[in-house]
Structure formats: structure tokens, C-alpha cells
What we know:
Elements: H1 2-6, E1 10-14, E2 17-21, E3 25-31, E4 37-43, H2 47-50, H3 60-87, H4 93-136, H5 142-165, H6 168-188, H7 195-198, H8 209-224, H9 233-237, H10 243-256, H11 263-280, H12 286-299, E5 308-311
Parallel strand pairs: 4-5
Antiparallel strand pairs: 1-2, 2-3, 3-4
Amino acid sequence: MNEQSKITVGGQAVLEGVMMRSPEYVAVAVRKPNGRIVLKKDAFKSWTKRYKILGWPFIRGGVILIESMIMGIKALNFSSTIAMEAEEKSKSEKKQEKTRKKTQKENDLKVILTMLLAFALGIGLFFYLPLIITDSTGVQTGLAFNLVDGVIRLAFFLIYLFLISLWKDIRRVFEYHGAEHKSVFAYENKQPLTIEGVKSFTTHHPRCGTSFLLIVMLVSIMVFIPLGKPDNINERLIRLVFIPLIGGISYEIIRLSGSKFGKKFARILVAPGLWLQRITTKEPDDSQLEVALVSLKAALNKDVGDQIEWVVPKNEK
């Protein structure tokens, strides 16, 4: 029990599945259209553990953010690959295998391209565009400029979440997101990792990525205020240098929410993120909880039963 309390787990919802991460493993479980669960588990060691300096406070947050984004995109690509294989089920096994290998190579390239595109769009939509709009308002003082810029950035983020929540496929992802949170809560509270054991827990978790991103938005306002009003393109772009610092501060705040020290202060900051999870998490059904539990058990290196279709990593074949 003491050993369990020291292990921190986290995850992410993917297409018809859940990715879970522990200090030693990353597991992705996906439900196929035929009802079976496909599972992939890889050994994992965070960059913050490999290189001591990357684990320092206020540095580790930015590192973990990048690391999580890479793992998340890989998990999404894996889940989409499973979906594509399901669509190919009417073809011969030989053709399916050829398609699988081709898809895997394409996905390796997609991971890099998607990550770069996501980063560029995120920077443009949530950091640079609000600066342009704020500049057009005619606000002159540095304090007022950064407050208006922060409000516009936050509004963009909320509108974005609301719009994607209207998409039927995204709602399914949000249900798996809820399943992920319930499973993690059950584990943290030392409850049985069964469907009945996780049902009673809420879908709103303080260490959720949604809460983290919202805190990033709020922290960025405080970090940018001392920079004053940017008067040219160079001064706007220089703000990108502060993104790792913003991520680092935000991560430490999230960590505080799970500790006794500063817990009340952290709760105040995390509260808006918990409210926002009313949009980004939905109540899952039993089949979705089952997928999340399989992923969690695999990440913890526990037995997942013999009804699972394993995908063996290349380095273990």
C-alpha cells in the first residue's frame, strides 16, 4: 500500500481508448468495433529522470508538457491506426499486414508533423493572435494591455473547448476522458480496480490537462505584465521564450493541489479547471471504464487478463 501511494499515474483519452502513464510504463488500450480491446505497452523513463537538471522545479513543468504532447500524439496515432485496421477487416490478412506496416511508417512521420503543426497553431491562436487583437483596441499601458490580452486569450480557449465539445466524435473522447479520471481516482484512493470500484468517483480531477492549460492561461497574464506593452514584432515574439517558464510555474501549482502544503491556495487556482471539466469530461459507460482500467493496470504492470489483444513493441519482437 505504501509503495502504491508513491506511484503517480496520469493519462489521456484517445479515439475509443485511453492512454495511461506511470513512472515505468506507457500503455494505450483501444476498443475495436468488434468489441475486443487492443493493448500496447512500452517501457518509459521520463526525461526528468534521465537528466537531473530537467527535473528541477520550474524546469520540469515545460519538459513534462513537451513530453506529454509527444506521447499523446503517438497514442492518438495508434488509436487511429487500430480504427483503420478495423475498416480493412474485409480484405485478406496479407493485404492487412501490408497496410499496417505502411500505416505505421506514415504515422511515425505524422507524429513529427502533427506535433510541429499543433505547436504552431497553438502559438498562433492562443498567444500571437490575441496580441494583434489587443493592439487594435488602442490600449496603451502595459498593465491594461496584458490584462486585455489575457482575457482575449482565455476567451479563445473557452470558445475552442465549447465548439469541439459539440462534435459527436469528440464527445466520445470526453467520455473516455471521464473514464480515465474515475480510474485514476480509484487507484489513488486504494479502491479495487474494477468497474464497480471506480463508478462512484467523479470525472473531475485536479491534475487534469484541462486544469493545467487553464492555469497556463492565468499564469501567462502574470508573467507577461512585467514585460509591458509589445510595440513591434520582435517584442511580441520574445514572449515565446517565456512559455517554458509559464509551463514550469503552472506545473508546480498543479503539484501543490495534491500536497498538504499550500493546498488551500492551490485549490483556489485549480477550481476553475475543475469547473471547466464539466465540458471536457462526460460520464462514461461500463465498456469505456473497462478500457481505462485495462490501460491503467498495464501501466502499473498488473495483470490485465487473457482476453486482450496485445500489440508488441518493435524492440520486444
